[in-house]
Amino acid sequence: MSIPTAPLVAVGLVGGYAAARFSGKRPLGGAVLAVAGAAAATGWTRQVGPVGAAALTAVYVGAFGASHPLAKKLGAWPSVGVVTAVATAAAAVADVKGR
User: Fold this and answer.
1) Selection from 64, 88, 91 nearest residue 76 by Cα
2) Are 44 and 53 in contact (CB under 8 A)?
3) Which partner for 16 in 33, 44, 65, 83 could form a disulfide, CB atoms 3.0-4.6 Å apart?
4) Angle between helices 16-23 and 76-97 (to 10 degrees)
5) What's the pLDDT score for residue 1?
6) pLDDT tens string for the chain (99 positions)?
7) Integer distance in angstroms from the first to the last C-alpha of the chain?
8) Is 35 exposed, middle or buried (0-12, 13-18, 19+ CB in 10 A)?
9) How wide is the angle at C-alpha 20 spanned by C-alphas 87 and 79, nearest 5°?
């Protein structure tokens, strides 16, 4: 049985932003994002193979990247919420397939 990756994605995106925002140290947020992403990628490789893991990693990194321009339109926290919902949904699909 593997660890569900959807919570890891949520922790990486929301936790990474929160860590950077509240500590004032962007590298700390990046570390949270990277550690959670690496853990999720390990799970995805087991669940859906290397090609699926690469696609899900692209969604995760893309969500992080998309949050920045989206924040200019919605605000920072709403933007993080939207991209986290999308990336977490994709991870949840992989979690179900991986069972």
Assistant:
1) 64
2) yes
3) 33
4) 150
5) 57
6) 578 999 999 999 999 999 999 999 999 999 999 999 999 999 999 999 999 999 999 999 999 999 999 999 999 999 999 999 999 999 999 999 877
7) 7
8) middle
9) 40
Contact 63, 86 (CB under 8 A): yes
**Integer angstrom CA distances of residue 70 from 37, 43, 64:** 21, 28, 10
- Kindly report whether the global pTM for this prediction surpasses the value 0.90: yes
Whole-angstrom Cα distance, residue 3 to residue 56? 16
What dihedral do alpha carbons 37, 43, 47, 51 form, nearest 10°? Answer: 40
In total, the chain counts a number of residues equal to: 99
